[in-house]
Amino acid sequence: MTPIERAALAMISSAIQGQVAPEIAAREVAAALSKSIAASARGVALQQGGEETMLAQEGQQFAAAEAAIKLQGAVPEVVFGPGKSPDQIAQMMQSCCKRQRMAMATRIEPEMYAAVRMKLPGVEYNARARLLTLHSPIADQLPKTERLPGSVAVVSGGSQDQSIAEECRLLAEHLGCFCFRLPDVGLGNGLGRLLNSLAALRAADVVVVVCGLDGALASVVAGVVDAPVVAVPTSSGYGATMGGAAPLLAQLSCTTPGVTVVNIDNGFGAAMASQKMLKMAYRLHQSQIAQRQSAAVIANDFELDWGAGCGPMITRGKVKKGGGSRTGGSQQMRGPGRCERGGRGMNAELELAMRIESS
Fold first, then answer.
1. Quick one: 238 exposed, middle or buried, by C-beta within 10 A (0-12, 13-18, 19+)?
2. What does the pLDDT look like over 165-181, one tens digit per residue?
3. CB count, 10 Å around CB of 313?
4. What are the φ and ψ backbone dihedral angles of 229, each rounded to 5 degrees?
5. Could you give the residue ranges of the DSSP H alpha helices within the chain?
6. Burial, 198: exposed, middle or buried (Cβ in 10 Å; 0-12, 13-18, 19+)?
7. pTM of this prediction?
8. What is the DSSP letter of 228?
9. CA of 72: how far to CAs of 21, 221, 224, in Å?
10. How many CB atoms sit inside 10 A of residue 235's CB?
């Protein structure tokens, strides 16, 4: 093991122990592994003089960098296809399958799919979404992706937007969301199609709107639903749309407030934004449940006892049936809202609120 590799392992160990932030460790490990692999690649190339060996080492370098980035988050990895060779895509997908049940690669053209399939016979291709999927051979041994409560509606305008909408739906499902499509809800022929789908739109917890041209669909949808809206401008349309720049600027200038806008044709970004919204909402809901349960436990610790002739009395401990007072160290509240503790009175509601706050 080289000194660079030992330093990388030490950095990973520090991140696991919490001594170093995960994002810092990821950058350091990626840089160290890149240096190590680059040095090995140069040595092998000089010895053998073969171009194929250099390409293989470059593929390993990309895979190592992707594995290091995994330290930054717990979401499933997705490979971005453009700019990578078939060898690099195949190696990255195989690397992902060692840690998750399914690997995906985006923006894969048919020619690239044919080349990758020569190296990964089990790979599957969705032509409409331009997505590659590969199921892990050890899927039964790997943890399942967390299924999030709630739903995501993926709304699209014309038929030219279907590719990005399908990419968004499949990726959101890969990230643990439940999605459903509402295609061809454009505004070219009026509001009829949108109004017919209004009930389904309002039932969703997050709405993704995929549209090109003037991008007006996102603003209209955001005005009729309460859920967060994620707008995806597409490159569909005539020359004046400037490859999606026109709907992008229009959605950034949306009259309906609170619309989240991702980049042009960025179905993956919309899927990731939707997943994060549902995940944070679920986390907040779980936190509120825990707070209510904690407050209920504390509230149950104050039990109501009706004393004979002295009005309501709140005591701690067992419920005392009948009248009379308690002796010893128990605290008592006699009369309407006064608690006697060591000779100093305290409002019972205030004391309960203080105990809940301190917990």
1. exposed
2. 999 999 999 888 999 99
3. 23
4. -120, 130
5. 3-16, 22-48, 51-69, 86-96, 110-119, 162-174, 192-196, 198-203, 216-224, 245-252, 267-300, 348-358
6. middle
7. 0.63
8. -
9. 9, 34, 37
10. 17
Q: CB of 135 within 8 A of CB of 100?
A: no
In single-letter form, the type of residue at position 255 comes to: T
Q: What region does 305 belong to: left with phi over 0, alpha with psi -120 to 50, or beta?
A: beta
Identify any residues that bridge with 232 across adjacent strands, giving them in sequence order: 210
Task: Tell me the two tokens of residue 199.
Answer: 């009930």
Packing angle of the helix pair 51-69, 22-48 (nearest 10 deg): 170
Q: What is the pLDDT of residues 317-345, one digit of tens each?
A: 444 444 444 444 444 444 444 444 444 44
Residue 305 neighbours by CB under 8 Å, 6+ apart: 312, 313, 314, 315, 319, 320, 321
Enumerate helices (H) and strands (E) in the chain, giving the number of each.
Answer: 12, 14
Residue 357 has what DSSP assignment? Answer: H
Closest C-alpha to 108, from 136, 138, 135, 88: 88
